[in-house]
Specification:
By secondary structure, the chain is an all-alpha fold. The chain is 54% helix and 2% strand.
């Protein structure tokens, strides 16, 4: 176990905090019998090789050892390690859903940087590059991490039959981000078998992963478990788009209007938010069905859960993007006024104690709207107290 860990020139590699010579100790600590030691090591890795979504040259180097740890049944908390591996491969899944990972775009962005020399990601070397070359280098770093995790696809496939429910669920989720050339390949065949898993969250995760791979989860829309049916609707919307049957749209609308969180790993378990995002795939732009549901959800969502709901509501109401500075409220469309009134009347929706608040305020401001509830009420001509 980890016998080649010291063969890597970690001190020549960099992560978010500088030289990566601390990575071997963190990786070894993931095998500790003490939960506190493991949790601290995982936290340290998450803030170094994956810092707020950014990957570094040490990220890909750490992946083979993380896969080795996951492959060993004696490693505690393997599901959390699979979660870290997925993050290293794709970043934040909210940046991609309801679409699959744009691997072709990443490969194109990395073109011209076919190899990353050891130490190539050092800050002093980056400063000597043009901005375009820095972008290509970062794309190469991200592609290296994605491909390193992709080498674990056979492992993730094997883990679909693991005795640990959380491991099966996270493995099923990981597979959805790595499309193969053949839709009838082992991965999709294995995921199809997992649709019958006794645990609904595992079966639901497999259904969505199949959809991301472009394969319809046959029969899952009539599964006796509601969670699996909701996941199947998301998958079918991904595969068929507006050609999906009306039953898919109705199930997405129903799910998008609920508050229940799940263990399905996408969007941190926010399957309702995922369903809300998927409505764009099945409904025409001129319908109010999606917006009606989203507006009923705005008063109830907080923090990270607010992002997909408000994002989709704004997308439906402002298809042309941000409004021009100084646009009077009365000049907006009725859809736009409805969204602004809903946000203005729901101050709790703006409240959160984590980093999601920055994402939320950026999202609002990106449409040229006031970045606080009081400013939104003033813009809408509403009383200062909702």
């Amino acid at each position: 176990m980890l016998e080649k860990l010291d063969d890597v020139p970690w001190s020549d590699l960099h992560h978010a905090l500088g030289p990566a010579d601390d990575v071997p100790a963190q990786l070894r600590a993931l095998r500790s019998g003490e939960a506190g030691v493991r949790e601290k090591a995982l936290w340290n890795l998450s803030r170094s090789v994956f810092h707020e979504g950014t990957r570094y040259e040490a990220s890909a180097a750490a992946v083979p050892f993380l896969l080795e740890l996951v492959a060993s049944p004696g490693t505690p908390a393997r599901a959390a390690l699979i979660e870290l591996l997925v993050a290293l491969a794709i970043g934040d899944d909210g940046s991609h859903l309801p679409s699959a990972f744009p691997i072709d775009e990443l490969r194109s962005a990395a073109a011209g940087r076919e190899a990353l020399p050891v130490g190539g990601g050092r800050p002093d070397r980056l400063d000597a590059l043009t901005e375009a070359d820095q972008d290509r280098l970062q794309a190469r770093i991200e592609l290296n991490a994605y491909e390193a995790v992709g080498a674990g696809v056979p492992l993730f496939t094997a883990l679909l039959s693991d005795g640990d429910v959380a491991v099966r669920r996270l493995a099923a989720g990981a597979l959805g981000w790595f499309p193969g050339d053949d839709p009838a390949a082992l991965t999709t065949s294995a995921l199809t078998s997992v649709l019958a898993d006794e645990d609904a969250s595992v079966a639901a995760t497999a259904a969505i992963s199949l959809g991301l791979l472009g394969v319809a989860p046959e029969g899952a829309l009539s599964d006796p478990r509601e969670l699996v049916r909701d996941a199947a609707a998301i998958a079918l919307a991904t595969v068929h788009g507006r050609a999906a049957p009306r039953a898919v749209t109705e199930r997405l609308l129903r799910r998008a209007g609920t508050e229940e969180r799940t263990e399905v790993p996408y969007l941190d378990g926010d399957l309702s938010g995922y369903a809300a995002r998927s409505l764009r795939l099945v409904l025409p732009d001129d319908t109010d069905e999606a917006l009606d549901v989203l507006l009923t959800r705005i008063p109830a969502v907080r923090g990270p859960e607010a992002l997909p709901v408000v994002d989709e509501a704004l997308r439906w109401a402002f298809p042309g993007g941000p409004i021009a500075a100084g646009t009077p409220f009365g000049d907006l469309t009725e859809r736009q006024r409805r969204v602004i009134r809903a946000l203005a009347a729901s101050p709790p929706t703006w409240q959160t104690l984590d980093r999601a608040v920055g994402d939320f305020l950026w999202l609002i401001g990106a449409y040229g709207l006031p970045r606080d509830a009081a400013g939104m009420r003033a813009y809408a001509g509403m009383a200062s107290t909702p």
